[in-house]
Amino acid sequence: GPVVIDEMLGFLVAVAFLPYSLSMTLAGFLLFRVLDIIKPPPARWLERLPGGWGIVLDDVAAGIWGNVILRLGLWWLGGDTAQST
After folding, report:
1. CA distances (Å), 51 to each of 15, 31, 47, 56, 77, in order?
2. Which of 14, 36, 43, 83 could form a disulfide with 66 if both were Cys (CB 3.0 to 4.6 A apart)?
């Protein structure tokens, strides 16, 4: 199917500046997809913005939620939340 740039952007936001690993990438992808479907605030509101803004910003909001949840999960598990260099 076609590449959907807004979905890619949302996923990249979800895993941005987190430690890279296959499990983190998979968790970020799955969490982003779930959040993109349920659209927690303010994603549903952002989706209503006119033009392409709503299409993109609801995915960015889902990605931000995903990133925060992943960071909290890492912190809770005692992991490092900073990206390795």
Report:
1. 26, 26, 10, 10, 41
2. 14
Q: Which residue is associated with the tokens 């990249």?
A: 12
Task: List the domain boundaries for the chain.
Answer: 5-76
Per-residue confidence of the chain (85 residues) as pLDDT tens digits? 566 999 999 999 999 999 999 999 999 999 999 999 999 999 999 999 998 899 999 999 999 999 999 999 999 998 776 665 4
Q: Is 51 left (phi over 0), alpha (psi -120 to 50) or beta?
A: left
pTM of the model: 0.87
Amino acid type, 28: G
Contact 29, 37 (CB under 8 A): no
